[in-house]
Write a structure and sequence with these properties.
Layout (H helix, E strand, L loop, with lengths): L4 H11 L8 H9 L4 E8 L2 E11 L4 E9 L8 H15 L4 E7 L3 H10 L2 E6 L10 E7 L5
Parallel strand pairs: 3-4
Antiparallel strand pairs: 1-2, 2-3, 4-6, 5-6
EC number: 2.3.1.266
Family: Belongs to the acetyltransferase family. RimI subfamily.
GO molecular function: protein-N-terminal-alanine acetyltransferase activity
């Protein structure tokens, strides 16, 4: 058993109104792929309060953020900012060229966070999200130009 999965799902339920965009099986599959996945979790007093995951494409040098969530009681304290920047830093250390992600069109708060970090818009995926067919905004950051 991978011990963080129940806590990750709990954060997703809290953030996404009782829903979990990914289920136990999806997270288990992700976390078993140790060569091309990277997950970071933040804990406070042994409670998981935030996480971020990404897939690593060594051929295209793309670090793709697949999910990120911060428990509601810990939002607005810079944890999401910290996690995204930690992934960007790790991708640079691994000599990747870009970091990419999708974000719901309605999630303007997350879009603002990503833009503040240095991501730029990179097109729209129409009907991307399975449950409600909401569009996704593609965003990317070219990390070859960072100092």
């Amino acid at each position: 058993m991978i011990p963080d999965i129940p806590e990750i799902l709990g954060i997703e339920r809290a953030v996404y109104g009782g829903q979990t965009p990914w289920d136990d099986r999806a997270f288990r599959s992700e976390l078993m792929r140790k060569n091309d996945r990277l997950y970071l979790v933040l804990r406070r007093n042994d409670w998981l309060v935030a996480f971020i995951g990404c897939s690593l494409n060594f051929k295209t040098k793309d670090c793709h953020i697949t999910n990120v969530a911060v428990a509601p009681n810990f939002q607005n304290h810079g944890l999401g900012y910290f996690l995204v920047n930690a992934i960007v830093k790790k991708a640079r250390q691994m000599e990747f060229e870009k970091v990419t992600l999708e974000v719901r069109m309605s999630n303007t708060r997350a879009q603002r966070l990503y833009r503040n970090i240095g991501f730029v818009d990179d097109g729209i995926n129409k009907g991307y999200y399975f449950n409600d067919r909401e569009d996704a905004l593609n965003m990317k950051m070219d990390i070859t130009k960072l100092g």
